[in-house]
Amino acid sequence: MKKILFILIASILVLAACSSGSKEGKESEGNGKKDPNTITAWAWDPKFNIAALKLAEEKYSGDEEINLDIIESGQPDIISKLNTGLSSGTMKGMPNLVLIEDYRAQSFLQAYPDAFYDLSDYINPDDFAKYKIESASLDGKIYGLPFDTGVAGLYVRTDMLEEAGFTVEDFTDITWDEFIDMGKEVKEKTGKQMLTVDPNDLGTIRMMIQTAGEWYLKDDGTTPNLAGNEAMADAFRVYKTMLDEGIAGIHSDFSQLLATIGEEKVVTVAQGNWITPSITAEEEQSGKWAVVPIPRLNVPNAVNASNLGGSSFYVLNIDGKEKAAELLSNTFGSSEDFYQDLVSEIGAIGTYIPAAKGEAYKEKVEFFGGQETVADFSEWMEEIPGVNYGMHTYAIEDILVAEMQNYLNGQDIKEVLDNAQKQAEAQLK
C-alpha cells in the first residue's frame, strides 16, 4: 500500500512540474497571454520617474494602442537585474523600457551594444541638450532618449545673505574662490556654514570639474584622466579650502543634508535641480530662497553651468521594441505640450529644448521670490559642457574618495592624483 501511495504522489509531482515548465516556456517566448499592445518598463522613484512614465502613457497620441506595465524597483536592483540578465545572453525577463542613470549608461552600451535598440530615427538630437545625447550614444547611434536634466544650481538663502551684507547678484556667475571669500564673511556675520559635503560621495567634485569640461576619464570614455588634470587638482583644492576655512560642514547621507536645510544650518545648497522639491517642502522658508548658476572653477574655459545626476530611457532589443520607441518618440521625444504637463504636474525638468518656450517654463515661483526657476534651469542646461562619462564613474570615484582623505590629511595634490591614476589604470585594464 505504501509503495502504491508513493508512486501516485511521485506521478502527481512529475505532472505538476511538466505543467509549470510548459507555462514558463510559453511566457518567456512571448506566446502566452501577454497583450501584444503591452510594453513593460523598469524605473525607480514613484513620485518622479514613474509618475513621468504614467503621464507619457496618458498623453500618448500615436496611431497604435500602447499599454504600459511599469515595474518599480530601486536603482541598485535595476542595475543588478540588468547586469544579470544581459550577461546571460538570453534577454529573458528583460523589460521593453528601462531607465538608466547617465553616469552608468556607457557601461551597459559598451558591454552589451546589441542588447539595445537604436533610437536615432525616433528623435532629433538637436532638440536635446548636447551633453545628454553624448552620454546616450555609441558609435554614432543614439540608444537613449534623454529624460530629466541634472542641471546644477546654487540655492541661496536670500535673508542670510542680506544679514551678511550681500545680495543674490553678488553670488551670481562667480568662481568657487569668490564663493569662499564671501562665504568667510557670511559665516563670520551669521555663524552659519555655507554648505555641507559628503566625503564618501564626491558629487560636488563632479559638478566642479564639469564646469571646465573635464571628467574622470578622457574623451575616449575609458582612459583615466586624473594625473595632470588641472580641473581635478583645482576642485580638490577648493574642496579642502572650504573645509579648512570652516565654511563647509560634513553630512554622511542625503537625509542629513536635508536636515541642514530644514534646520536652517546652511546658507547655500549646491545640487542638481532635482533637489528643488526637497527645498520647497520647507513651506515656512517660502520667499527666502533664490537659485543662481553654479560657481565655476578658476581654470581656463570654465563656465557657470554643470550637471549632477540625470537619467535617460533605453529600449531593449526585444519584441515590442518598436512600440516602446514610438511611445518615447511621441511624448518625451517630440511633444512640447507633454513637457508643460511634466513641469506643472510632476516638477520634472526635461532636456527637450523646444519645450522651454512653453508657459509652464515661465511660471514665477512664489517660494523662490517670484523667480522663473524652470526657465533659468533650462537656460543653464544648454550651457553645460559635454563630457564623456564613460564606463567607470563610480569605480574611479571609489579610488578618489580614499585619495581625497590623503589629500585632506596633508599629502601633496600631485602625489594624490598620480596615485589615483595608477590605481585606476591597474583596476580598469
Walk me through this protein's architecture.
Helix 2 links the parallel strand 1 (38-43) and strand 2 (67-72). The chain has 16 helices and 12 strands. It is globular and about 65 Å long. It has helices at residues 2-28, 49-59, 75-88, 102-111, 130-135, 158-163, 176-190, 203-210, 230-244, 254-262, 276-280, 321-330, 336-346, 373-381, 393-408, 413-427; strands at residues 38-43, 67-72, 97-101, 137-138, 141-142, 144-146, 152-157, 195-197, 248-250, 268-272, 289-293, 311-315. Helix content is 44%, strand content 12%. Residues 1-33 have low confidence and may be disordered. It has a 5-stranded mixed sheet. Strands 10-7-11 form a 3-stranded antiparallel sheet, sandwiched between helices. Strands 4-5 form a two-stranded antiparallel sheet. The longest helix is centred in the first third of the chain and has 27 residues, at 2-28. It has 429 residues and is an alpha/beta fold. Helix 2 crosses helix 13 (336-346) and helix 8 packs across helix 9 (230-244).
The proportion of residues in beta strands is: 5-15%
The overall strand count is 12
Strand order of the main beta sheet, please?
2-1-3-12-6
Largest β-sheet summary: 5 strands, mixed
